[in-house]
Amino acid sequence: MTAQILATLLPVFLIAGCGTLYGRLRNPDIATLNTLNMELFVPMLVFAVLADGQAPLEEYAGLALGGTVVVLGSGLVLWPLVKWLGLEVKTFLPPMMFNNSGNMGIPLLLLAFGDAALPAAVVLFIVEMLLHFTVGLWMLSPGSSLLRILRLPIVLATFAGLAVNLLGVPLPGWLLEALHMLGGVCIPLLLFALGVRMLDIDFSDWKTGLLGAVLCPLSGLVLAAPLVWLLGLSGLQAAALWVFAALPPAVLNYLVAEQYRQEPHKVASLVLIGNLGSLVVMPVVLALVFAHVHAGIGG
User: Fold this and answer.
1) What is the pTM of this model?
2) Is the pLDDT of residue 296 over 60?
3) How buried is residue 210: exposed, middle or buried, by Cβ count under 10 Å (0-12/13-18/19+)?
4) How many domains is the chain built from?
5) Which of 8, 44, 84, 117 is placed for a possible disulfide with 113 were both Cys, Cβ 3.0 to 4.6 Å?
6) Residue 297: inside a domain, yes or no?
7) pLDDT tens figures, 86-100
């Protein structure tokens, strides 16, 4: 089991480490790189996975519901504690809710369980992204434009992929292959970009960051435990929900906080220290998942 955990985590941290080293030496324009990834490569992957008729999306409805409850439920579970501690809700709660399902979640699930986990990883990523660009933006700015959200490339790719899949529109093999190849670029690029972002760690608010590093995976796992049983998830889908629930805050939280001027330095601490904390959390979670996945978690 130790070898399996190392085989899963070492490529993740090695690619992210390459990003950190390159960022230190060259100071690349990571904003442009992230824009290219989020506007082209990630939407290509999302569309290709959803449009591929080999992925029966109706089988992932329970997983999508579970992911939704984990995201929204984390905010509800932690809200009383955040108020009691006197923390700013708009600063602290979004990073606890919206996790790193892109930069870390997709590569981690693929390395842990192979290509068979790709549909589950993408479904959870779509759930998190759609909630982030709707509920998340509404939390920071109740007047956010719905039309602006609907124009996002990942949202358009999601709707287009769902339409092709549900209507049974056949796509030629060469087109799907090209889309999968382009989409595949996003996976190592997400990890590389995460590594570059790690250079921005601000330890001035380390206490808040450390608190978030504990509460983010803890709140997700507390919710995932009953959900796996209630939704009847087993095997890969149960494993995917457990990993999703334990992921650290998404880097996107920092970018959104910066855009809306919602204490971005504190959010940076929550995000980046939380991602450092995953060095401890994810091996433990993967050990538990690997120990039960073959028997069907929750089955």
Assistant:
1) 0.82
2) no
3) middle
4) 1
5) 117
6) no
7) 999 999 999 999 998
CA distances to 75, 215, 267, 269, 288 from 210, rounded to whole Å, are 18, 9, 12, 8, 23
Assigned domain for 298 exists: no
d(CA 99, CA 271): 9
Amino acid at 132: H
Are the C-beta atoms of residues 106 and 125 closer than 8 Å to each other? Answer: yes
Give the pLDDT of residue 298.
43
208 part of a folded domain:
yes
- Give, in order, the Cα–Cα distances in Å from 158 to each of 47, 146, 153, 155, 189: 6, 16, 8, 5, 20
In the chain, the amino acid numbered 152 is L
What number of CA atoms fall less than 13 Å from residue 126's CA on the CB side? 29
Contact by Cβ (8 Å): 44, 157 = yes
pLDDT band at residue 55 under the 50/70/90 scheme = low
What is the distance between the alpha carbons of residues 83 and 262, in angstroms, rounded to a whole number? Answer: 17
pLDDT reported for residue 144: 66
In a domain, 299, yes or no: no
d(CA 202, CA 97): 21
User: How is 152-167 classified by DSSP, letter by letter?
Assistant: SHHHHHHHHHHHHHHT
The backbone torsions φ and ψ at residue 204, rounded to the nearest 5 degrees and listed phi first, read -65, -30
Instruction: Compute the distance between CA of residue 112 and CA of residue 2 in angstroms, rounded to an integer.
Output: 12
User: Taking 70 as the threshold, does the pLDDT of residue 154 lie above it?
Assistant: yes
Q: How many residues make up the chain in this entry? A: 299
What is the rounded distance in angstroms from the CA atom of residue 123 to the CA atom of residue 36? Answer: 21
Query: Could you give the dihedral angle defined by the CA atoms of residues 21, 24, 25 and 27, in that order, rounded to the nearest 10 degrees?
Result: 120
Domain with 197, as residue range(s), is 1-292
3-state secondary structure at position 99: strand
Among residues 156, 120, 152, 119, which one has the least CA distance to residue 133?
152
